[in-house]
Design a protein that fits this description.
about 160 residues; alpha+beta; 8-stranded mixed sheet; 4 helices; about 40% strand; globular
Length: about 160
Amino acid sequence: MVIVREFTDTDALQASVIYFESFKSYLKERMEISAPQPAGYWLDNMRHTVNSDYENISFVAEIDNKLVGCITVSAALKRRLGTLVRIGVLPECAGKGVGKKLFAAADEFWRQRNMRKVASCVSSINPGALKFYQSCGFHVEGTLKDHFFEGVDEHQIALFY
């Protein structure tokens, strides 16, 4: 059973491994680092922060008390624009509903804050991720040529409420 909860500081090291392994699964030789980032790197990126204009939050997914997925999302509160910053699931857990459960937590977060639109991007070399986003209601709005990597396009995607 997949359990989703808010990220805590003690999750940072496992989150680092999850993001590293999930990105490596499609980036392969393009991966610019050879090991997961230190836990401290993820603490600043994943902690729940909020002010009058902006809110950032991360959720983690567990199966049998083991972290298997993470998602970080944000909300520009005055503009009502959400962002799916990043999502990662351990490759061995792909197709087990982990991503859907993480997205459901993010969707609830955005709905509670009355977002009008959620934006993200997905690599053209990760067609499984694009299919996942589309199953969650996202649509491709455009394509950025050679964006993060030479020869690799990024699809700009959006979900409208």
